[in-house]
Amino acid sequence: MSAKDRRGFIKTVAAGVAGLAIGGIGGFLASSMNQQPTTTARTETRTVTLRETITQTVTGAASPRTTPTTPLKVGVINPLSGGGAPLGDPGAKGGLLAVELINQAGGILGRRIEVVGPIDTVGLPDRAVDAVTRLVQQEGCRIIIGEVTSAAGLAIADAADRLGFLWMPCEVWTPRVFETRRKFTFRLSWSDAAAGVGAALMALRIKPDVRTIATINQDYAHGRDNWESFRSTIQALKPDVRVVEELWFPLYGLTDATPFITRLMAARPDIVQSTIWGSDRFVFYRQAVPAGYFRTVLHLDTCLTGMDGHNRETWPDGLYAGSQYNRFYPPWDLWPINKEFNEAFIRRFGQPAFAEGAQSAANMFTNFLALKQAIEKAAATVGGWPEIDEVAQAMVGMRVIGPKGIITIREDHEFEGPQVWARTKYVSGVPYPIVDPNEVVTFPAELTVPPPGVAWREWVRNYKIRAIT
Amino acid sequence: MIDLSFATYYILGSLFFASLVFLISAGLNVIFGVLRIINLAHGSLYLLGSYVAYSLFIAFSSLDRILLSVTVPLLAGLIVGLVGIGLEYFMRTVYRLPIDYQLLFTFGLILIFADVMRMIWGVNPLTFGAVYFAYGTAPIGNLFFPLYNIFIIAVTLFVGLFLWYFLQRTRLGSVVRAVASEREMSSALGIDIKRVFIVTFLIGAFLGGLGGAVTVPVLPASPGADINILIIAFVAVVVGGLGSVKGAFVGALLLSALRTIILIVFPELELFSLYLFMVAVLLVRPYGLFGAKE
Questions:
Q1: By the 8 A CB rule, do A234 and A213 touch?
Q2: Which chain A residues have a beta carbon less than 8 Å from that of B225?
Q3: Closest Cα in chain A to B128
Q4: Which domain holds residue A258?
Q5: Residue A194 near residue A302 (C-beta atoms within 8 A)
Q6: I want to staple A259 with a disulfide (CB 3.0 to 4.6 A). Which of A337, A368, B160, B263 is the partner?
Q7: Do both A278 and A302 map to the same domain?
Q8: How far is the C-alpha of B88 from the C-alpha of A296, rounded, in Å?
Q9: Looking at residue A309, which CATH number applies to its domain?
Q10: Could you tell me if residue A339 is inside a domain?
């Protein structure tokens, strides 16, 4: 990796922490564990100390809250069957791995985490609401982690506010989740709004004179929002860009893709945007490659997060892939936590989280790291084991260090992190196309993530390239 | 506008989709025709065929790809057929029960199959593209049509012919037909119904497994594929008429042609139009186009 890339990496992934020494996951977990509440409070700003005094007067200093001796029950949900399982299963494993490592390092403030689940939601709203209701009412969980599909995610976010549990999804990209103000939902995976903007920026980078665009997507919140964000952004920057084809099919519903491929090729768009995921993408790629699709069309995939494993033969070359994480990015040499996370995953489960499942695994892992950090932060503030709304308050503004780099949790409960784009190609010695390491492009969060408090639709419609300070 | 090469592509694509649908619905229909059981787990047999074929492809990946594309599906179909015989043994408990018990029973089988397959093959979509690519493509204007899709169409025609020949021209076939139309009378005439049931289930499961095996180079084997394919196959079966192989054939062709037209005109209505078509057929002919009035 060149010096230039190194600088780019520091700027995006490790923003603001250049020179920070991280001693690997084990040491990292243990060191946070040893941070007694008072120590953390000292390192925090004055505001926290102030809040500490306020809370103490409210709760009464005479009865300090003790850490319960029972394990902390955390519900884990994800699609473990059906078309969402390729993400849901590695996602659940990433979560379980985090719990095991945290427990080995002494738990959260000495309290062990007990996972209830993983419970299979099949990615369906009704199944997901059933699962979280049962976890809250029968198992007494006040924290639930996981879920992949946007369809189920919208239902869970409502349930979280209604039933009063803290929820952190595994994926669930639709920006609609935060169109309502959420008290208990925190999303550390990225949103379709950001993904679409990133795709638009990438489109202009690879084809500055783009005039026509098209899309093929799964017909539900994720596909629709991703496309809307892409289309609005690119049309805001280049008003003469025309949409020449829009194709939609039901989630997990693709069997014969030939009519879709034919239509896309007949429309001759300059750029095709797509965010198909799961089994549908395999079907599409498999049938698009021999049809000559990727030879004639510049295809931007905003949902591709890994290029290895069983699925490798499916990937075409000449494909532009964007994501927020892939197994080898952040680079292992520069960001050892990512290396350690992946190695620990292989040690525990015998094989890596392949392809797009890698991001789900990293997201779930990060969710648990954030949870631990938030509980410790809240405990320092309130002087004892915190209530769930205090944990939620502590989440805001937190910086979480994990396999994905360093991410910030904003006041609107979304995370801020960079976006990674790359082109796939054949390199010598590898029998299938991989992400070209020399063509990795990162977009910083300021360029792609709508600022807190701003409606994402308005933001993308009036998108301007902003100068980054 | 659509020119000739696009039209050819669409027609071939339509035949390809019809083939996928027929391969799945044929087995479903054979089993229903004789055993009068709606085997919801047929989608599971299909997916099992895909997984078994994947493993066979990997195990013999050094052999010639074209040879593999013919032998592996037959072998996978046979293995799934044997699983089907085992399944038939358990099915006997529900033969005489009302249809809701049969549906519950076979639905339970879907869940069991799904979990077992997940334990064995995991959750990642598995596919063997080398076979698909070994066939190459045929240029049609500016487009390229994958020749493997033609292979699938050919396999489907062969399966259709085989079923017709077996049922209409062989002795065992006429016995099977006799049992299908007059179970008690056939029994009274000395036909071993149990054996006919086993043979039927073997054929039905073989067809399901063969369908899964033949398609795994195109459609990855992954959790959920069992249900997806089952729904579409059911629409074809209902349109064509439950229990009629000819119905399944015509149903698949009609359904696929309709789908292609809808995809050209208004792609968002793909699934909706298929269901609408099914409802329309059921309103006019409740027993399907080729089904027998009961």
A1: yes
A2: 83, 279
A3: A313
A4: 193-330+418-461
A5: no
A6: B263
A7: yes
A8: 50
A9: 3.40.50.2300
A10: yes
